[in-house]
Fold this protein.
Amino acid sequence: MALSVPRSRATGLRSGRATRERVSPLAQCIQLVADELHKSERHLQEMLLSSVPAVGAIGRYLADSGGKRLRPLLTALAARAAGHTGDISRLMCAGELLHLGSLLHDDVVDDALERRGQRSAHLVFGNAGVILTGDVCLARSVQVAAEEGGHDAVLALTRVVAEMSEGEVIQLLNRSNLALPRAVYHDIIERKSAALISWCAAAGAWASGNEAAVEGLAQFGRAVGTAFQITDDVLDYAGQSAVTGKQVGRDLVERKVTLPLLLAFERDPLLASAVANSTDKPEEVAILVRRVVATGAPALALEAAREHVAQGIDALHRATPESAYRSALEALAHHLVDRVK
């Protein structure tokens, strides 16, 4: 299970005295909706089952490899912040199912070698089976949204599916485009990452029947989702592989142009030509990563992420009353920028 209290792969908490003395903000968020998260995880495992054994095996291969389970957590906290007191655990699975399906698809498109510290599913099961299992995850996501969230929720989710797919196409068309406009970068991450996180936050309001809170929570989710992706892009340069579980500089290898690189180009006029003429050799990638970090671009990108968080929290305050759940959403938003993995 990806989320558990108090020992969670997602929280990185340690048992014993240290845990009792200091509980991280993320762990506090998780503890606040621990029952909902446990139930949601059980439902997710059930939803990944299939009468076709290969489909279930592929889905569980990715789901059981870890992951933050950010999207179910966000839906649970948003629902409680919007006043929902009933069972939210099945609806919490909708965003995670779509996320899992998109990861299966993305790894095929990108020909990725690793996901969450293990071989990518398409290398184990083959492209065709993984793509079709991703389709199953997508279909079940929409089904759950219809059953648990109602008409508005499922209609919005279908728009998210389109946005995510369009974002991937835009990214593919701009691979290796070192002159990528910053506006196009933001369009890509808003479609690929922020749109789904926005839906997960708004889903909590739909579940509560609090229509007045839907727009504000959606804005909060979109801002936080944008900040989350910018931080991910920063960690590709400034993170530590042993902590993140990802190869530092992978975006350079895959020729993905992200905000830290764009900001670095502005501060190091010769960097773009160095990237254009580079190979995938680890020693060359390492040199380029050091040049990006030396410009201060990763730190500047993080400041941009924090600005998005501040905007999101403003929207959250307009949408929901003061409560422990709203405070937890604020803490979660800050954590997503301050994290190290």
